[in-house]
Amino acid sequence: MKLEIACFSLESALIAHENLADRIELCSDIKSGGLTPDYQMAKSSRTKISCDLYMMIRPRSGDFVYTAKEFEQMKKDIQFFKKIEADGFVFGILNKDGTVNISQNKRLVSLAAPLPCTFHRAFDSTPNPQKALADIISCGFSTVLTSGQAKTALQGVELISKLASIAKKKITVMPGGGVRSNNIASIVQKVSTTYCHSSAIVNESNLPSIKEIQLLRKNMRE
After folding, report:
1. Contact, 16 vs 24, CB < 8 A?
2. Dihedral, CA atoms, 120, 184, 45, 84, nearest 10 degrees?
3. Are the beta carbons of 72 and 104 closer than 8 angstroms?
4. Where are the chain's structural domains?
5. Residue 115, SS3?
6. Three-state SS sequence of 119-137
7. 123-156 pLDDT, tens digit each
8. What is the Cα–Cα distance from 53 to 81, expressed in whole angstroms?
9. Which CATH superfamily does the domain covering 2-221 fall into?
């Protein structure tokens, strides 16, 4: 069982790295839930961090339906982050009806290759989660991040468990959304997965808590 920490600054990423996060999802703009990180922050993070570093590819806040110009920016961001040796990418594109945009997602997954891609919590906005999961698998994603279409992963744990059972070895279903040290054990007891996702933020500082990361690691493995 491994732990991914969502980080919204270089300082956050260094805290996560120093406290043995298995993987870091690097983003900017915590208020929007995470946007594409600034190039300089990404470069600095890569030079200082040796664990897996996944880059968020999300050009703006709001919905997950993107214009042609926004899609081109997403492609440019992936190309830049590949050059600085990112380990993977996090993105998700939907159609106006909330279904998975197979064509655009496939193009980004292909551009990112051979690096792995995570379909983020845009999944939780899809109208048919089982169909969305099948579409995401067909696009070539290695992981899907989900709260089980609930406010938190604990509340959506039954759906997450069902999706993980359906996915089997085709894709990793990663619980995320309100995952904390006081509920992670309850989640992993019900969900067959290799990764959990948390920001480990427990106060107004917007920084991951060292103690919380340690407790997350401890409680997820007991």
Report:
1. yes
2. -40
3. no
4. 2-221
5. coil
6. ECHHHHHCCCHHHHHHHHH
7. 999 999 999 999 999 999 999 999 999 999 999 9
8. 10
9. Copper homeostasis (CutC) domain (3.20.20.380)
